[in-house]
Write a structure and sequence with these properties.
Layout (H helix, E strand, L loop, with lengths): L1 H5 L1 H25 L7 H38 L14 H43 L10 E9 L6 E7 L5 E9 L4 H19 L5 H12 L9 E9 L4 E7 L4 E5 L4 E5 L18 E3 L8 E5 L1 H4 L10 H12 L5 H16 L8 E8 L10 E6 L4 H4 L8
Parallel strand pairs: 1-11
Antiparallel strand pairs: 1-10, 2-3, 3-4, 4-5, 5-8, 6-7, 6-9, 9-10
């Protein structure tokens, strides 16, 4: 019986067998009843009736379900409205009906996923554009300082940031670089929050880097997850003194190139990252960078530089960056130094995929009598595509 229920051929053979059994049974009954000949009309009527019965049973069990299924398949293929069908049999038509139902469920899920991806992609594009707008497009030209700053996100939305903010009276320039843990939307939101807070505090006249760090942390910490935090280092350039002061919040070293001795001084930024504890007033300290001579250079960077790896898994490291600065710090412009550091970094990582945001700022001290020079900025992000990941690393693609 299982073969008959699961197979159209089995059903056809079963109906044929039933018809033949009825015919033989009828013949035997007539023969025993003494009937020697069956009228032609009666015989034809019996045959037609039997065939009609088989057709009705076959149509009800196979043709009708198959027609319903075919109609819905045609609707699906032509883009019309379709509906799923409850299988009424377990034969081939029933299997095809079940398959149709499963396929349409999968198609609906895929269609939903595609719509969600398009929506999320659109929202990511908007968020990325907002972040691009937050990062500085220009910076105040400061007499005596030649500056180049660039950042590149490892995804559509990055967690690195930097900015150049002039105090309300124009006597001081605040320069900072920050790095939120990870990258992506959460990191981008923290980055934008910190940028907004720092900009607001400077505009309100907060006069030193320590107070900016302490106040920013106090406002930020209650509003973010304990798993997210941001390292940063803040430089404060006092024009009247021609000096830099720095305040660290768990960030990377500050590198200072001394032209007279052709040496590089790594300075620990110190402090603790923003968002880790509610109050950093007893930890944050503002310290002076020993006075710069004409031709000296200061470099700020995020850990995307030092933790970048090459094809063998070796990290670029602080020492390699310091050695590169020592080799090229003599160059007369910040752009020349920046480009040289970049070339050595490119030569190290080559085609290895960038997995973290990368930021670097080079500041060349030209002396108090030097004319103001335009700060050179660049902001870009890496698309997660094979085309970009097969290229040698650079700041723009």
């Amino acid at each position: 019986m299982k073969f008959i229920r699961q197979s159209i051929i089995g059903k056809a053979l079963f109906l044929f067998a039933v018809l033949m059994a009825i015919a033989f049974g009828l013949g035997i009954a007539l023969n025993r009843g003494g009937v020697d000949a069956i009228p032609t009309n009666f015989f034809l009527l019996a045959v037609v009736s039997g065939l009609a019965l088989i057709f009705i049973l076959f149509a009800a069990d196979i043709v009708a379900p198959l027609k319903r299924l075919t109609r819905q398949v045609q609707n699906l293929l032509t883009g019309k409205s379709y509906r799923r069908i409850d299988p009424t049999t377990i034969d081939e038509v029933g299997v095809l009906t079940h398959f149709f139902n499963e396929i349409t469920r999968d198609l609906e899920k895929i269609s939903y996923d595609l719509r969600e991806r398009r929506r999320m992609s659109s929202e990511l594009d908007i968020a990325s554009q907002i972040q691009q707008d937050v990062l500085p497009k220009e910076a105040p030209a400061t007499p005596g300082l030649d500056i180049v700053a660039k950042t590149r996100a490892a995804a559509e939305i990055g967690g690195d940031t930097f900015d150049f903010l002039l105090s309300p009276d124009g006597s001081q320039l605040f320069i900072y670089v920050g790095d939120v843990t990870g990258h992506g939307v959460p990191s981008g939101l923290i980055m934008m929050m910190v940028d907004t807070l720092v900009t607001t505090l400077v505009a309100q006249g907060v006069a030193n880097g320590r107070d900016i760090i302490v106040k920013t942390n106090a406002l930020l910490t209650p509003r973010i997850s304990s798993r997210l935090f941001m390292t940063t280092v803040m430089l404060r350039w006092v024009k009247s003194e021609q000096k830099f002061y720095y305040t660290g919040a768990g960030h990377e070293h500050i590198l200072v190139y001394r032209k007279a001795t052709e040496t590089v001084e790594p300075i620990k930024s110190g402090g603790i990252a923003l968002g880790m504890i509610p109050d950093v007033s007893k930890i944050a300290m503002e310290k002076e960078i020993p006075p710069l001579a004409v031709g000296d250079c200061v470099v700020l960077y995020s850990d995307g530089i030092t933790e970048a790896k090459n094809q063998t898994g070796e990290m670029h490291g602080l020492q390699r960056l310091a050695d590169s600065l020592k080799k090229h710090g003599y160059r007369p412009t910040a752009e020349g130094i920046f480009d040289s550091l970049t070339k050595e970094f490119q030569g190290f990582v080559e085609e290895y995929v960038q997995i973290d945001d990368i930021t670097m700022i080079v500041i060349k001290y030209l002396g108090p009598d030097a004319a103001p020079s335009k700060v050179k900025l660049a902001v870009s992000s890496e698309e997660a595509s094979a085309e970009h990941k097969s290229k040698v690393w650079d700041w723009t693609s």
